[in-house]
Design brief:
Helix content: 40-55%
Number of helices: 19
Bound molecules: adenosine-5'-diphosphate, 6-O-phosphono-alpha-D-glucopyranose
Distance between the termini: 42 Å
Structural class: alpha/beta
Largest sheet: 9 strands, mixed
Number of domains: 2
Strand content: 15-25%
CATH class of the largest domain: Alpha Beta
CATH superfamily of the largest domain: Glycogen Phosphorylase B
CATH topology of the largest domain: Rossmann fold
Strand order of the largest sheet: 5-6-4-1-7-8-9-11-10
Length: about 525
């Protein structure tokens, strides 16, 4: 069995982690005889970002077992190591009805659209909520039963928002708990209208440290804690005081395993594949988009903008080809097949209207790719068009830059992607709500001079190569294990957004690094007991 990917080893001494997410890191594919034929990384940003984490740390990944239980007690907890999976995993079994209510229902028809503020898709049903609570409790039970003394418990994403508080009720207070929210956090007006908002916020507040990708998401969360739960969020900026506890909130934009992408891009055969991709498509300029087939990714709006581009600028016809890789996702959630049908109809129309001879303006592919193939596509693309309507971060944007070891390529990036906070200055930023701006942005990228391309890509690459999985991981683990008062950079990020929202009611927010009053749930215990391998003080 080959290792599923290229990983870069780290020499940082990380603690033992018990990492939990809904999505399992790898899917094991078996042949007709039940023999393991291969092991594939699950699709999506969370697993792309976190697999390298468990490659670096000693630990276990707890996740959902996507095969429904056949009987009530059958296979409720399954431990796995081997079969090509590079680290130990524990899978939590769900009943068929729970998959419907918890995953398809509450997670994907309520929380996902709520966090991305697509309110027309929010379906807040009580039966979904009940399954969500049951499954979050089950995750907490499994984690509590498997955690060793001083393990760091790190809970990931909106599926498990209730787990941090549920863990608090089950475990030794010396355990440190972190939570990372990989998607946007809605503003107080949006969250307030959602029936279970208080339980969700309280659930996350069970953690010692909470991470968000951008200052906006972090300050939305802080504002929600203040307005909806009455927490003290002002006496110590970056810390939420609730009851006798304090939870720190930090802005930690996630990075990619940039070295690994660069290493693949430097391989001769991958570069040859990139040349082949261009030859096969036979166009002068290639624009690439890579997304899960999700309505938040703005694929439909992008197709419409491209149609407008070909209509208004006939010189682009026959010259520019768009390649969209869109892997179907969440196919049992009705909004997704409906969206897919709309996207495909729009693509057919576009190709029908403008295609001629053997030139097809829009090439659409729906299959998952191996990382090498993905990198070959990144290398082949003159322009990467990453234009979601809303996106927690968007790793494809960083992967594109990390792969461009040739220093060429232009990134067109939606200002609504979290990645715009780190990469926006050197990308061509577009507002997906304004089609005209999108068309102009794509044209600008296509006509950019070689020197400007090199300058921008050089700057983008230095950001991406600096803010990697390692740096992100180290900051997040420091937040969980060795909480410090917010530093000047964090304060600047949080206070700036706070000012904009509160009509400059920033007088109460002190600059500088204040002394922590009671920084975390377990701070007093932590002074006595080392967490994992590394002592907290
Ligand atoms: P999201 O988290 O919403 O899925 P991101 O852009 O942050 O969006 O992450 C998507 C991840 O999935 C990236 O790491 C990207 O490389 C990977 N990915 C997307 N499409 C494909 C594909 N067709 N084949 C392989 N990996 C893909
Ligand atoms: C986003 C979410 C992840 C999720 C991924 C894929 O990245 O933040 O938590 O795993 O999408 O979605 P899926 O529903 O297939 O896990």
């Amino acid at each position: 069995m080959n290792r599923p990917d290229v990983y870069v080893q780290s020499d940082i001494d990380f603690p033992r982690l018990l990492l939990a997410s809904n999505r399992e890191p790898f899917r094991v594919i078996r042949d007709a005889n039940g023999e393991v034929s291969r092991c594939e990384r699950s699709m999506g940003g969370l697993t792309s970002a976190l697999c390298p984490v468990l490659e670096r740390c000693d630990g276990v990944w707890v996740s959902w077992n996507p095969n429904a239980l056949s009987t009530d007690d059958d296979d409720l907890i399954r431990e796995q190591h081997g079969d090509g999976i590079p680290f130990p995993t524990i899978q939590v079994g769900l009943r068929k009805s729970e998959i419907k209510g918890y995953y398809n229902g509450f997670c994907n028809r309520a929380l996902w659209p709520l966090c991305h503020t697509v309110l027309r898709c929010v379906t807040p049903r009580l039966d979904y909520w009940q399954d969500f609570r049951t499954v979050n409790d089950r995750f907490a039970d499994v984690i509590a039963s498997r955690s060793k003394k001083y393990d760091v418990l790190w809970i990931h994403d909106y599926h498990l928002m209730l787990v941090p508080a549920a863990m608090r009720r089950r475990i030794d207070p010396r355990h440190r708990i972190g939570y990372f929210h990989h998607v946007p956090f809605p503003n107080v007006r949006v969250l307030k209208a959602f029936p279970w908002h208080r339980q969700l916020i309280k659930g996350i507040l069970g953690a010692d440290a909470i991470g968000f990708h951008t200052p906006e998401y972090a300050s939305n969360f802080i504002e929600c804690c203040q307005e909806l739960l009455g927490c003290d969020t002002r006496s110590e900026p970056g810390t939420i005081h609730h009851g006798k506890y304090g939870t720190i909130v930090r802005v930690r934009p996630i990075g990619v395993d940039a070295q690994s992408f660069a290493m693949i891009a430097n391989q001769r055969d991958v570069q040859d594949d990139a040349i082949q991709i261009r030859r096969k498509i036979r166009c002068e300029r290639l624009v690439l988009s890579v997304d899960r087939l999700d309505y938040t990714k703005g694929i439909l709006e992008r197709v419409e903008a491209i149609r407008a581009l070909f209509a208004r600028i006939p010189q682009c016809r026959g010259i520019v080809t768009f390649v969209q890789v869109a892997v179907p996702t969440r196919t049992d959630v009705p909004e997704y097949p409906q969206y897919r049908a709309k996207v495909e109809a729009a693509i057919d129309e576009l190709n029908g209207e403008f295609g001629h001879g053997d030139w097809k303006p829009f090439i659409y592919r729906t299959e998952p790719m191996k990382r090498r193939e993905l990198v070959a596509h990144y290398l082949a693309a003159d322009v990467a068009c990453i234009t979601p309507l809303a996106d927690g971060m968007n790793l494809v944007a960083s992967e594109y830059c990390a792969s461009r070891t040739d220093g060429d390529g232009v990134l067109v990036l939606s200002s609504q992607a979290g990645a715009a906070t780190t990469l926006g200055e050197h990308a061509v930023c577009v507002d997906m709500r304004k089609q005209e701006g999108v068309v102009t942005g794509i044209l600008r990228a296509l006509t950019m001079s070689e020197s400007e391309r090199a300058l921008r890509m050089g700057r983008l690459r230095s950001i991406v190569m600096k803010n990697t999985t390692d740096t992100w991981l180290k900051s997040c683990l420091d937040d969980i294990m060795h909480p410090e008062p917010a530093d000047a950079e964090q304060l600047a990020a949080l206070v700036k957004i706070g000012h904009a929202r509160q009509g400059h009611d920033g007088g109460r927010v002190r600059a500088g690094a204040p002394k922590s009053r009671h920084a975390t749930h377990s701070s007093s215990m932590a002074k006595r007991a080392p967490a994992g391998n590394a002592p907290p003080h």
